Amino acid sequence: MLVDIKKKGYPVLDYRPGVNNPRNSEGAFLDLKDGRIMFVYSRFIGESHSDDAKACIVAVFSTDCGETWQDERVIDHPDRHEALNIMSVSLLRMQNGDIGLFYVIRRGWHDARLHLFRSSDEGLTWSEPVCCVPGLGYYVVNNDRVVRLSSGRLLVPSALHKMRTTDTIKWGSFDSRGTVYVMISDDDGVTWREATNSCSLTVPHTRSGLQEPGIIELKNGALWMYHRTDLGRQYESFSVDGGETWSEAVPSQFTSSVSPLSVKRNPSNGHLLAVWNPIPNYQLRKIGKHSWGRAPLVGAISQDEGKTWTNHFAIQTEEDNGGYCYTAIHFTSDAVLLAYCAGEPEDGICLARLKMTKVLLSDIYTE
Fold this sequence. Notes:
This protein is mostly beta strands. Helices cover about 0% and strands about 45% of the residues. A hairpin with a 5-residue loop joins strand 11 (about 145-150) and strand 12 (about 155-160). The longest helix has 4 residues, at about 360-365.
């Protein structure tokens, strides 16, 4: 249990599972030109909540800075791509003003790769996809992860999981040990290539390797990449050449369960906001099927480019009796919207529902 940390924010959305809708999963935000906020997420259809089950890409919109959401519309369906699943959304404004919508098209353990769709009419219609991963393989890219550097370069952090067998669909073929590869585009997403080197873990006692990476550009031009592991901490690596090469991954200051860290920069003041699950899966800790040890969910602010973190606050606590993960972060003029997967006892799994919390920035900066 965390001591002396206050729960802040209030719920603005809770998409629970239902009949023929076993899971509502992670997403991403984007400001539209008419002042609305668009949120895009994966809505599972049918009976299965597995990552390789069918899911539609769905958009909802807010006209009041995230207080309410409406005008739900389906953007895409896996059958259009002859895919098992489509999920893990990122959104980005492209250099010509288009909306860039990124998500993974999963065809099996041999082929799960991020694709870019573009819209020139603020999300009414979408282009045919461009694959962001040159080589065939099972590349995990989390939601809300595609970044644009100050140079204009686009980066996609991904974790490659090899196949243990030749079976392209069954779970037994999946190797949980991830190796991180960063994809680069210098022409605003038209073409993509791999960075020069990859990142992997060579330490013992890990079955995860490096998983679910994210990247943030620091003010000095260096890039900080963070990785989920099963070693009780997020690991980190750095690049000083725009993502071409990366340092060896080492333990960061973030203790963590086997769950991803999310970091975004507040455009109004330049501070970094981190959201994560700070308690590791230590021996004898009780971990429920619906929570996976992914509680509490907390945030913190850094005013010195990640050297120190202050203004800690809770979004969800262990007393909420659930698991919370895969957070998308979006700043408004006076608040931050946090959308995340959640599982509560009646759901049975950690990833069943999509929740969104709004936290006033004034509350975060008030200890």
